Amino acid sequence: MVYKQRFENPNYKSTASKNYAHIRYIATRPRVEKNDGRNHGLFGCLIPGTPMLEFHHWQDVAQLVYRNSKRHVVMYRSVVSFAEDTAKELMLTDKKAWQRYIENHIRTIAEKNHIQREHFQWAAAIHKEENHPHIHIVFWDDSEEKAKIKNPFTHSSIPNHIRKQMIKDTFAIRIRAYGEEKNKAVTDLRKISDELVEDFEHHVRLIERKKYQRIREECKLEVELSEDFKFANHILNDVVGKVFQLKAMLPPRGRIAYQFLSEDMKQQTDCLVKYLLSQIIELDKLKIDYVESKLKMVYLYGGNEAYIFSQKKRFEKEADKIIANRILGMVKTLNRLDDEYKTIDCQYRQRKYYAEQMILEIMDMFVSLVETNYHHYNKFKKTWNSELSKDARKELYLKYQDKGYEH
Question: CATH number of the domain at 2-226, please?
Answer without folding.
Answer: 3.30.930
